[in-house]
Specification:
- The protein is an all-beta fold and about 120 residues long.
- The chain contains no helices and 11 strands.
- Strands 2, 4, 5, 6, 9, 10 and 11 form a 7-stranded mixed beta sheet that branches.
- A hairpin with a 6-residue loop joins strand 4 (about 30-40) and strand 5 (about 45-50).
- The model has no long low-confidence stretch (mean pLDDT about 95).
Length: about 120
């Protein structure tokens, strides 16, 4: 399984930014997709996840109402739309996928990772 995240950048507080994660190597629609982030000096933290069909989503409380996870199974791509960005959203964002259907929020339960993309929100 290969995951390629893209779309990071430098934005200002209140701006929006969209991330993409292109997947290959297995049947995309069969598996959960997730986004995590890691700020300097902090552990990697759960952001959002989406079921294989796209019908179920889960968010961290810190991003609920501002971020939206989605997927296009025809394009083997997952997305994270981030609105009303705050300086505390600054981090490297990683996409991930896992076997199984449970929405684990701990990184150790996700077996496949993309390379990460930097998101920096200036105040």
């Amino acid at each position: 399984v290969q995951l390629q995240a893209s779309g990071g950048g430098l934005v200002q507080t209140g701006d929006s930014l969209g991330l993409s994660c292109a997947a290959s190597g297995r049947t995309f629609s069969n598996y959960l997709m997730g986004w995590f982030r890691q700020a300097p000096g902090q552990e990697r933290a759960f952001v959002a996840a989406i079921s294989g069909s796209g019908g179920t989503t889960k968010y961290a409380d810190s991003v609920k109402g501002r971020f939206t996870i989605s997927r296009d199974n025809a394009k083997n791509t997952a997305y994270l739309q981030m609105n009303v960005l705050k300086p505390e959203d600054t981090a490297v964002y990683y996409c991930a996928t896992r076997d199984g259907t449970f929405f684990y929020t701990t990184p150790d339960q996700w077996g496949y990772w993309g390379q990460g993309t930097q998101v920096t929100v200036s105040s």
